[in-house]
Design goal:
- This protein is of the alpha+beta class and 302 residues long.
- The chain has a single domain (2-301), classed as DD-peptidase/beta-lactamase superfamily (Beta-lactamase, 3-Layer(aba) Sandwich), CATH 3.40.710.10.
- 38% of the residues lie in helices and 18% in strands.
- The protein contains 9 helices and 11 strands.
- The strands form 3 sheets. Strands 1-3-2-11-10-9 form a 6-stranded antiparallel beta sheet, sandwiched between helices.
- Helix 2 (32-43) runs antiparallel to helix 9 (280-301), helix 3 crosses helix 6 (148-157) and helix 4 (123-133) crosses helix 5.
- It is globular.
């Protein structure tokens, strides 16, 4: 009963409104640089959202418009990985342990399987491809087997109200398609990674498997660019830092969600920026602001 009450309280913190806040300048931890950097983007017309939770207490360290649902690009693939991992845990994947890619699954952009000769892969390898290189073909194959309804039902069962996977990956979106691949609220996404770190997403086995897939992520171009880690090899702790994250990129969208553990503390974080991607300068300003958030996170955990 006590554990259930704690879980309910944590989920309530991701849905109840609260004003943006950060620790004051007289305290050791200060996220004012994050507020300044993201605030400048907002004043310039971008929509920004950010949430940071302390891994030990679960308490918020930073919250900026963290209840609003924004386009989240590939971040929604985490929900697919959760459902796939849950089915592997209960052995429900035994009937389709090896899946085929078809012509309907083939899309461009991120991933490797489109260029690989192998036509079939085990479900665990699909999870690895999605976690490491955000593979779009692997996403569509796995989603075709599992179904959007199952992924949505799993997200709802976790208490996620503003975070959802809406569609398959498409090269072009028509008027009859969902306008976005996924949407997310940073408060919910930070909580999701916090819960994964504590083994509370479905169960500990399911949570660990999802984190194992995501620990291979190669994209450290956003918030994680401040951590000085090797993009291709950072599963082990490096100089006292350990990162697990998932990123999302689309036209006018940059998102980074993850866990950062340092020598003195750990955090779960989520940052999403929706902006007019009209020039390289605009895009670089967004990436620089996300890197500023990363510097604040690094100072907090190190």
């Amino acid at each position: 009963m006590t554990a259930h009450t704690r879980d309910h309280s944590r989920r309530r913190r991701t849905t109840d409104p609260r004003p943006a806040r950060h620790r004051g300048a007289d305290e050791i931890e200060n996220f004012s640089a994050s507020f300044t950097a993201l605030g400048e983007l907002a004043y310039a017309g971008a929509r920004v959202s950010a949430s940071v939770l302390d891994l030990t207490t679960g308490l918020p360290l930073l919250s900026i418009d963290d209840r609003i649902a924004l386009p989240a690009a590939s971040i929604g693939k985490v929900l697919l990985l959760v459902e796939a991992s849950a089915r592997m845990t209960t052995r429900e994947a035994s009937g389709y342990g090896i899946l085929d890619k078809t012509a309907d699954d083939l899309v461009g952009d991120s991933g490797l399987w489109r260029r690989m000769q192998v036509p079939t892969l085990p479900i665990g390898d699909l999870g690895l491809l999605i976690g490491s290189v955000s593979d779009n073909v692997a996403t569509n194959v796995l989603l075709r087997q599992i179904g959007l309804d199952a992924v949505r039902a799993r997200a709802e069962s976790l208490g996620l109200k503003r975070t959802a996977l809406l569609d398959v990956v498409r090269d072009k979106r028509g008027p009859d398609d969902a306008p976005q691949f996924s949407v997310g609220a940073t408060a919910e996404l930070a909580w999701l990674f916090y819960a994964l770190s504590r083994g509370q997403v479905v169960d500990s086995v399911t949570s660990r498997r999802v984190l194992d897939w995501l620990s291979m992520n190669h994209d450290l171009s956003m918030v994680a660019s401040a951590f000085g880690l090797d993009p291709l090899a950072h599963r082990a702790s490096s100089h006292g830092l350990q990162l697990i994250n998932k990123t999302g990129s689309d036209n006018g969208v940059r998102a980074d969600v993850g866990l950062l553990q340092g020598r003195s503390a750990g955090v779960a974080y989520a940052v999403i920026v929706e902006f007019v991607d009209s020039s390289l300068q605009q895009r670089l300003r967004v990436l620089e602001a996300m890197r500023a958030v990363g510097h604040d996170l690094l100072e907090y955990v190190y």
